[in-house]
C-alpha cells in the first residue's frame, strides 16, 4: 500500500465522523428566524468563516493602533513584547555567534518552545523560511499595510499544519486600502549608539468602478546596532553595568571539602592568556608581553578557581567585546493587485521583494587559551626571555594570548534576500442552499542567504606564521618550508606589535568564510467553509481544504571551510595551500560552513466543524469545535493531528468558558534531515575499552515528527452589563512535546545503544578490525520530552472621560514549570521555569495605560520580569555543602534580579493628515542582570540590553 492510499484511509474515518455528526444534528434542527445582518468573521485560530463562531483557542490581537503606539522601527519588536512570546530571536540575540546563521534574524517563539515550533503566517499563508531551520524573518514582511496581528497561544496544527505547536502568529494586511500614507522615524539610545532611521510609504487605489484594487508599499529601515566594547572592563557603548562576570567551576572531586562547586566571579580574570601574550607554564610562567614586546610580570588575581581568578590584570578581558545588537538594514517592497470578478469573487496576485542585511561583531581578538607551544629560538622573542630559556635549559614554553594587537575585529555579514509571489482567488458562492466562502492560492517563495565573515584567521596559517625562525641575511621567515613556499609570512605575537600588512593578509585573507544557501518553498492551497446544516442551537459551520507544500534548500560553503570535496566550489579566491589539507575543511577560527542539500514535500487535508449545542435564555450558548488533519510527509511519513474544543457563553452577563485539547506536530526541518557531514577523529569507551572512531556529524533523514499534546482551559469575562468597558480572561495551558529532536555526543550514543536503543545502534560501527573504519554518526534523534505548564491573564478596561478615552490593558504569563527530559542515561528532568538565563521566566507581564483625545494621546507601558535563578537543580550553600553531583551541583549563588521597565509615548495630531509622535523606551534606563554562561554579557531573551532609547516620528495619511 503506497503512502498516498494510507494517507487517504487515515483521513476518511475522521471526515465521515464529522459529516455524520453534522447530518445527525441537522435531523433535529429547528429553523430560527433572524433578520439581523451580521458580518462574517475569520478567526486565526480556526479556518471557519462564520458570523456566530467563538473559537475555544485563546487569541491575543494587536491592532494597527497598538502597533503605532509601540513606535518600533520593526513591527517584530512590538509583537515580541507580548508575554506569551518567549524565546524569540531578534537583533539582540546571537550577536556573539559567527557560525549559526541566525544573526539579525527576527523570528517569534511562543511559550519558550523555540522559534521552530511557532508558525508565522502572512494573511493566513505560509512564508518561505529565511534560515535552513525553516523559520521566517519578520523583517522581510511588508509592515505599513498591516492592520492587525493575531497571536494564537495554543496548538493549531489541525488547522494550519506543521510547526504550530506553540501557536500561530498571523499578520493581516489591509487589502482594500485607498489613499497614501507614510511614516518617518529616527532614533538613538542614551549612549549615543543604535542610531536608526525608518521611512515607509504605501499607496492604494481602486479603478474600473471599484473592481480593480491595487496596493503598493515600500520601506527602508536602518539601525546601527551596538558595537562591542574594548578589552578590559569597558562595556559596549560605555555601559557601566558590565562587570566582566564569569562562572567558575571546581572539579566535582574537589567538593568533598564542604565548599560549593560553582562560584560567580565579578571582574573575572582568565589566567590562561594575557592581552598581548602570557607564558602560562614552566619556569617562565607569569612573563607577559606589553608595548613593543617588552616583557613584564603578569599580575594574577586572587581566589583562583580553575583558570578563573578575581581581579588582577584585566586588560585582556574580552567578554565585553561582542555586539549587544546587530546592525540591520531592511529594504522591503510589496504589491498586491486584486480584481473583483463579480461582487462576491476576487482574483489577486501579490509580490514581495525584501533584502535584509546585518552586521555583528561576535568576539574581540582571537583567544588562544594556553594552547600554543612557542620555541625559544623565535627571533621575535626578546633577548631577556631567550636568555631565561637558556638559563632554565628549556627550548619551548606554553603560551596564551587574546591577540589584542590584531585589528580590525572579526565581523559577520548575513544578507537575506526574499522574493515571494502569490496568486489566488477568494470569494463566495451558493450551492445546495448554502453560502460558501473559499480561498485558494499558489505561492512561490525563494530566500537566498549569504553569510560572509571578514577579518577572521585561518588557524593553520596562524600556527605557521607565528612559528618563525631566523632566515638568511637577517631576515625572519616561517619555519615550515612548505608553508614558506606557499606564501607564509611570519607574524610577531609577543606584545603590542601590529602585524605587517603582508602577514595579516596571509593569516586573515580577504576572502573569509562564505556560505551561500538558496531556500525554496512552493505551496498550493484550497480552503472552503460554510454553514450547510443547522442544529437545534444554530448553524453548523464547517471548513475543509487541501494543501501541497514542497521545501528545498542547497548550502555551499567555501573550500577552506567545506574541505576538498567534490561539491566544494572551484574558486580561485581560495587557492590551494599545503597547510590547509584537511579534507573536511574546518580551517577557519569559526564559520566553517559545509555543503548540504535536501528537499521534502507535504500533502495535507483537513476538516473542521463548529457545532452549536446550546442556545437557551436560561442556560446560555455553547458550541463544540473540532478539527482533524491528515498529513503525508515524504520524509517522516503519515501523521494525524486533531483538535477538540468547546465554548460556553453562560447566562451571566459577559461570562464565558472555553477549553481545547489538541494533538500537534512539528516535522523535522531541512537542516535536521539533510545537514552536511563533518568528520573528526575521537574516542569512545565500548565494553570497557577505548576505541578510536570517526565522529561523523550529519543530518538524519529517518527522523520522525515531534508530537505534542496541548490542553487549555479558560474563563472570560467580556463587557458585562455592570461594567461594559471591562474584559478579563484567564487561560491555563499544559503542553507536552514528545520525540523532541536533539543531537547527542558520541559517548552518549554508544551508552544508549548498549542499553538497547536500536535506532542508535544503526548509527555506529565499533567492532571493525580494519584501521580507521570504526565510526559513530552524530545525528539528531527523537529522544527528548518537553512539558510546560502555566497560565495567561489578560485584563482591559476602556471608558470615556470628558473629551478623551482612557484605556487600561495588562497581559501576563506565568510559567509554572518547564520540564525537559533529555532521554539520556544518568540524567534527570530539568525545570527551566524561572531560569532567567533562559527564555521562560516565572512571570512576564506587560501593562499599558493610554489616554487619547481627538487631538493628542499619551501612553505609559510597564514591562516586568520576575526575579529568577541560574539553575533550578543546584544546591545553594556556602559551607557544609554536600558533595556535588552532575545532576545536582552545589553553588554559592543562584539568584538573578528581574526587571521593571517603563516606556513613555505621546502623539499629537498637527492636522487631519499629519501626526507627530515620540517614544522613550526604558525610560529609567534600567540595567539588565548580568548573565554569564549565556554566550553574551546579558540575556537578550528576557532583558533589554540597549538601555534608554529615544524615537521621534511623523505619520501622514491622505
UniProtKB/TrEMBL annotation:
A Pfam family per the record: TonB_dep_Rec_b-barrel
Residue ranges constituting the TonB-dependent receptor plug domain according to the UniProt record: 54-168
Keyword Lipid metabolism recorded: no
Gene3D superfamilies for this protein: TonB-dependent receptor, beta-barrel domain (2.40.170.20), TonB-dependent receptor, plug domain (2.170.130.10)
Record keywords, A-Z: Cell outer membrane, Membrane, Receptor, Signal, TonB box, Transmembrane, Transmembrane beta strand, Transport
Keyword Plastid: no
Membrane topology listed for this record: Multi-pass membrane protein
TonB-dependent receptor-like beta-barrel domain sequence ranges: 426-923
Record's signal peptide: 1-29
InterPro entries: Beta-barrel_TonB, Beta-barrel_TonB_sf, Plug_dom, Plug_dom_sf, TonB-dep_rcpt-like
Subcellular location: Cell outer membrane
PANTHER family registered for this protein in UniProt: PTHR47234, SECRETIN_TONB SHORT N-TERMINAL DOMAIN-CONTAINING PROTEIN
Protein family membership: Belongs to the TonB-dependent receptor family.
Protein name: TonB-dependent receptor
Protein source organism: Cellvibrio zantedeschiae
Gene from which the chain derives: btuB
Amino acid at each position: 500500500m503506497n503512502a498516498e492510499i494510507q494517507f487517504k484511509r487515515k483521513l476518511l474515518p475522521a471526515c465521515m465522523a464529522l459529516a455524520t455528526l453534522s447530518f445527525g444534528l441537522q435531523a433535529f434542527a429547528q429553523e430560527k428566524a433572524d433578520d439581523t445582518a451580521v458580518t462574517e468573521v475569520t478567526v486565526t485560530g480556526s479556518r471557519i468563516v462564520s458570523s456566530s463562531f467563538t473559537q475555544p483557542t485563546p487569541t491575543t490581537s494587536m491592532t494597527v493602533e497598538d502597533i503605532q503606539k509601540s513606535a518600533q522601527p520593526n513591527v517584530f519588536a512590538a509583537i515580541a513584547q507580548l508575554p506569551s512570546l518567549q524565546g524569540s530571536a531578534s537583533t539582540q540575540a546571537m550577536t556573539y555567534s559567527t557560525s549559526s546563521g541566525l544573526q539579525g534574524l527576527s523570528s517569534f517563539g511562543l511559550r519558550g518552545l523555540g522559534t521552530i515550533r511557532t508558525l508565522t503566517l502572512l494573511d493566513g499563508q505560509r512564508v518561505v523560511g529565511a534560515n535552513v531551520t525553516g523559520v521566517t524573518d519578520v523583517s522581510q514582511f511588508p509592515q505599513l499595510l498591516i492592520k492587525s496581528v493575531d497571536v494564537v497561544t495554543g496548538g493549531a496544527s489541525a488547522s494550519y499544519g506543521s510547526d504550530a505547536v506553540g501557536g500561530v502568529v498571523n499578520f493581516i494586511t489591509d487589502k482594500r486600502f485607498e489613499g497614501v500614507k507614510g511614516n518617518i522615524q529616527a532614533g538613538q539610545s542614551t549612549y549615543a549608539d543604535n542610531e536608526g532611521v525608518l521611512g515607509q510609504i504605501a499607496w492604494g487605489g481602486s479603478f474600473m468602478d471599484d473592481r480593480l484594487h491595487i496596493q503598493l508599499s515600500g520601506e527602508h529601515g536602518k539601525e546601527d546596532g551596538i558595537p562591542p566594547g574594548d578589552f578590559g572592563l569597558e562595556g559596549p557603548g560605555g555601559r557601566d553595568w558590565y562587570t566582566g562576570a564569569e562562572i567558575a567551576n571546581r572539579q566535582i572531586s574537589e567538593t568533598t571539602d564542604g565548599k560549593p562547586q560553582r562560584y560567580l566571579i565579578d571582574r573575572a580574570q582568565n589566567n590562561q592568556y594575557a592581552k598581548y601574550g602570557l607564558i602560562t607554564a614552566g619556569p617562565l610562567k607569569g612573563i607577559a608581553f606589553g608595548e613593543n614586546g617588552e616583557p613584564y610580570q603578569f599580575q594574577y588575581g586572587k581566589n583562583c578557581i580553575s583558570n578563573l581568578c578575581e581581579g588582577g590584570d584585566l586588560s585582556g578581558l574580552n567578554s565585553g567585546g561582542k555586539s549587544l545588537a546587530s546592525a540591520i538594514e531592511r529594504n522591503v517592497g510589496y504589491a498586491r493587485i486584486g480584481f473583483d470578478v463579480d461582487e462576491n469573487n476576487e482574483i489577486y496576485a501579490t509580490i514581495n521583494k525584501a533584502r535584509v542585511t546585518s552586521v555583528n561583531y561576535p568576539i574581540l581578538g582571537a583567544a588562544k587559551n594556553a594552547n600554543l607551544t612557542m620555541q625559544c629560538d623565535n627571533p621575535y622573542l626578546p633577548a631577556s626571555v631567550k636568555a631565561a630559556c637558556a638559563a632554565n635549559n628549556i627550548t619551548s614554553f606554553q603560551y596564551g594570548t587574546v591577540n589584542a594587537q590584531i585589528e580590525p575585529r572579526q565581523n559577520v555579514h548575513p544578507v537575506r534576500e526574499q522574493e515571494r509571489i502569490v496568486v489566488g482567488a477568494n470569494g463566495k458562492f451558493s450551492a445546495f442552499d448554502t453560502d460558501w466562502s473559499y480561498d485558494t492560492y499558489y505561492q512561490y517563495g525563494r530566500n537566498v542567504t549569504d553569510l560572509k565573515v571578514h577579518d577572521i584567521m585561518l588557524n593553520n596559517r596562524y600556527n605557521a606564521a607565528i612559528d618563525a625562525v631566523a632566515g638568511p641575511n637577517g631576515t625572519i621567515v616561517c619555519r615550515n618550508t612548505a608553508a614558506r613556499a606557499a606564501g607564509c609570512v611570519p607574524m610577531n605575537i609577543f606584545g603590542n606589535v601590529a602585524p605587517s600588512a603582508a602577514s595579516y593578509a596571509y593569516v586573515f585573507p580577504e576572502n573569509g568564510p562564505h556560505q551561500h544557501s538558496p531556500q525554496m518553498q512552493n505551496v498550493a492551497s484550497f480552503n472552503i467553509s460554510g454553514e450547510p446544516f443547522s442544529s437545534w442551537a444554530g448553524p453548523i459551520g464547517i471548513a475543509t481544504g487541501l494543501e501541497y507544500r514542497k521545501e528545498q534548500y542547497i548550502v555551499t560553503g567555501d573550500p577552506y571551510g567545506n574541505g576538498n570535496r567534490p561539491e566544494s566550489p572551484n574558486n580561485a579566491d581560495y587557492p590551494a595551500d599545503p597547510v590547509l589539507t584537511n579534507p573536511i575543511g574546518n580551517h577557519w577560527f569559526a564559520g566553517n560552513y559545509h555543503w548540504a542539500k535536501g528537499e521534502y514535500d507535504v500533502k495535507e487535508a483537513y476538516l473542521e466543524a463548529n457545532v452549536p449545542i446550546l442556545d437557551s435564555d436560561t442556560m446560555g450558548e455553547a458550541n463544540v469545535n473540532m478539527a482533524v488533519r491528515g498529513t503525508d510527509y515524504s520524509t517522516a511519513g503519515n501523521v494525524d493531528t486533531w483538535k477538540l474544543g468547546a465554548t460556553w457563553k453562560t447566562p451571566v452577563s459577559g461570562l464565558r468558558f472555553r477549553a481545547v485539547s489538541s494533538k500537534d506536530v512539528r516535522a523535522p526541518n531541512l537542516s535536521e534531515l539533510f545537514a552536511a557531514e563533518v568528520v573528526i577523529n575521537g574516542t569512545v569507551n565500548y565494553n570497557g575499552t577505548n576505541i578510536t572512531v570517526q565522529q561523523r556529524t550529519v543530518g538524519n533523514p529517518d527522523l520522525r515528527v515531534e508530537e505534542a499534546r496541548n490542553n487549555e482551559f479558560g474563563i472570560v469575562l467580556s463587557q458585562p452589563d455592570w461594567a461594559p468597558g471591562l474584559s478579563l480572561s484567564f487561560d491555563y495551558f499544559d503542553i507536552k512535546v514528545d520525540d523532541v529532536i536533539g543531537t547527542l555526543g558520541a559517548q552518549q550514543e554508544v551508552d544508549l545503544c548498549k542499553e538497547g536503543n536500536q535506532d542508535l545502534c544503526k548509527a555506529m560501527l565499533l567492532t571493525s578490525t580494519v584501521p580507521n573504519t570504526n565510526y559513530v554518526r552524530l545525528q539528531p534523534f527523537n529522544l527528548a520530552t518537553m512539558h510546560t505548564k502555566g497560565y495567561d491573564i489578560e485584563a482591559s478596561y476602556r471608558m470615556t472621560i470628558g473629551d478623551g478615552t482612557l484605556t487600561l490593558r495588562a497581559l501576563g504569563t506565568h510559567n509554572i514549570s518547564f520540564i525537559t527530559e533529555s532521554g539520556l542515561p544518568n540524567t534527570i528532568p530539568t525545570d527551566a521555569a524561572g531560569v532567567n538565563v533562559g527564555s521562560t521566566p516565572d512571570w512576564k507581564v506587560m501593562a499599558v495605560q493610554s489616554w487619547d483625545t481627538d487631538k493628542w494621546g499619551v501612553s505609559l507601558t510597564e514591562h516586568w520580569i520576575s526575579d529568577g535563578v541560574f539553575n533550578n537543580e543546584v544546591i545553594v550553600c556556602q559551607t557544609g555543602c554536600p558533595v556535588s553531583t552532575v545532576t545536582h551541583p552545589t553553588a554559592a549563588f543562584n539568584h538573578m534580579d528581574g526587571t521593571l521597565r517603563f516606556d513613555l509615548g505621546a502623539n499629537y495630531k498637527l492636522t487631519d493628515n499629519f501626526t507627530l509622535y515620540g517614544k522613550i523606551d526604558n525610560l529609567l534606563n534600567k540595567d539588565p542582570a548580568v548573565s554569564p554562561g549565556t554566550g553574551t554579557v546579558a540575556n537578550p531573551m528576557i532583558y533589554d540590553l540597549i538601555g534608554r532609547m529615544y524615537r521621534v516620528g511623523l505619520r501622514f495619511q491622505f
